Amino acid sequence: MKHHAPYLVGILLCVLLPMLYFVPACGASPVAEEHRELWTGRMYSSTYRAGICIKSNGEVYGALFLRQASGAVDRYTLSGKVDGKRISVRHSSGHVFQGVFTSKNTVEGELVLKNGHKMRVRALRGPEPEVDESCRLLQQE
After folding, report:
1. Which has more confidence, 2 or 116?
2. DSSP output for 14-29
3. What percent of the chain has pLDDT over 70?
4. Which domains does the chain possess?
5. Is residue 133 over pLDDT 50?
6. How many helices (H) and strands (E) does the chain have?
7. Gap between the Cα atoms of 9 and 130, Å rounded
8. Are strands 118-125 and 59-67 parallel, antiparallel or unpaired?
């Protein structure tokens, strides 16, 4: 059994590590591997959908579509970083979100607008989104 221990440890790591947040599957290229996610939520009377791509090094990029009660849709390009259970993303205008994954399918945190206004935000993970090569959502609804 002692001779098989390194082999069994390797198998366990290949099975268990991908279950952790944003860890690439065993055998995946650490440079090119990425996955796509859809996050949705509400802020006041608006709803949002964010399509993001997460690289194996934790880099995050994508776009958020904010649908206002009037029906108008604002688009925000996002970039940031995931580090374990923490995520930080920003928009070029100066808006910054910092949050924590409270479960596999929920992230909670604070959005600080460029004017300094702060609000609590909670987002839920949805099915894998359809995105283009720049990780922009193909369907905005």
Report:
1. 116
2. HHHGGGSTTPPPTT--
3. 70
4. 31-141 (2.40.128)
5. yes
6. 1, 8
7. 36
8. unpaired
Q: Report helix, strand or coil for 60.
A: strand
Q: What is the H or E stretch that residue 90 is in? A: strand 86-90
- Nearest CA to 81 among 47, 53, 109? 53
User: What six digits make up the tokens of 94?
Assistant: 């100066």
> H/E element holding 105?
none
* 3-class secondary structure, 92: coil
Reported as half-sphere exposure (CB side, CA atoms, 13 A), residue 118 has a value of 5
Instruction: Output the pLDDT for position 136.
Output: 66
Q: pLDDT of 13-31, one tens digit each? A: 333 333 334 433 333 334 4
- From the CB of residue 117, how many other CB atoms can be counted at a distance below 10 Å? 9
Identify the three-state secondary structure at position 77. strand
Q: How many residues are given for the chain?
A: 141
Distance CA 29, CA 7 (A): 21
Burial pattern 36-52, b for ≥16 Cβ within 10 A else e, equals ebbbebeeeeeebbbbb
